[in-house]
Amino acid sequence: MASLFSPIFSASNSPKPSHSPERTFHQSNRKDFTRTLTPRREILKGLAIFPLTASTLFKQPSSVEAKEVEVGSYLPPSSYDPSFVLFKASPKDTPALRAGNVQPYEFILPPTWKQSRVANILSGNYCQPKCAEPWVEVKFEDEKQGKVQVVASPLIRLTNKPNATIEEIGSPEKLIASLGPFVTGNSYDPDELLETSVEKVGDQTYYKYVLETPFALTGSHNLAKATAKGNTVVLFVASANDKQWQASQKVLKAMLDSFQV
């Protein structure tokens, strides 16, 4: 079976323009054309150091993939704060939940947000229940406030110990070093990590992160919260660009704080 991140899938996700000036040239201009490509090749060489898996997972959905329905029209108000609605993931929502590979999770979000559809190739549907790489569970976004995503990673990718707790995997810094690219969508630099904290909710431990990521595909500001349960590490990511962050950082932090597995 083809890998999630194999070239055939990458190619299928990239639209092919019907006409491109660069693809039509005379033989006499071939040297000039080659010279224009050289800088691009150098750029691509540099990009090769970034994890392809993360950039694939965080590819922006097309307008065709997005639902045009505000979540407030079908999700119940949050008992924690009625100005938010509550999303409780169930087996009908994702392939991993149907396979029992991820434990149910929940979080609050503003009623004006909309859910984005996750492409089948990114959802892990093809590999459940034994996926070797992380996959996207759900996505929600608002163009004025930002976006959130839930990413799940197989525990075996991080430790050989079955049913390990997040503490047994390692420190908050160790975990984000492995999962950072799935927060930013491309690369992770330890210097981008501004703050870490540990939160206990019952028997469940969560690692929380605040990152300033000027080169991230997801946005220049990222918040993340991770925990391990069963055979999976579940990562909640809230992202915003500079303009969105100024207006909605309190909202994004509230969403992050509400995330539970």
Name the features.
261 residues; alpha+beta; two-stranded antiparallel ribbon; globular; disordered N terminus
Question: How would you summarize what this structure contains?
Answer:
With 261 residues, the protein is an alpha+beta fold.
Summarize the structure in words.
The chain is built from 8 helices and 10 strands. It has helices spanning 7-12, 30-47, 52-57, 95-99, 120-123, 166-169, 172-184, 242-258; strands at residues 66-70, 85-88, 106-109, 114-116, 135-142, 146-154, 193-201, 204-212, 221-229, 232-240. A hairpin with a 2-residue loop joins strand 7 (193-201) and strand 8. Mean pLDDT is 81; it is low at 1-52 and 58-66.
> Which residue ranges are poorly predicted, with pLDDT under 50 across at least 5 consecutive positions?
1-52, 58-66
Number of helix segments?
8
- What summary fits the major beta sheet? 8 strands, antiparallel
Helix/strand class: alpha+beta
H and E string:
HHHEEHEEHEEHHEEEEH
The total strand number stands at 10
Alpha-carbon Rg, integer: 20 Å
Shape: globular
**On the 0-100 scale, what is the average pLDDT?**
81
Query: Which range best describes the helical content: under 10%, 10-25%, 25-40%, 40-55%, 55-70% or over 70%?
Result: 25-40%
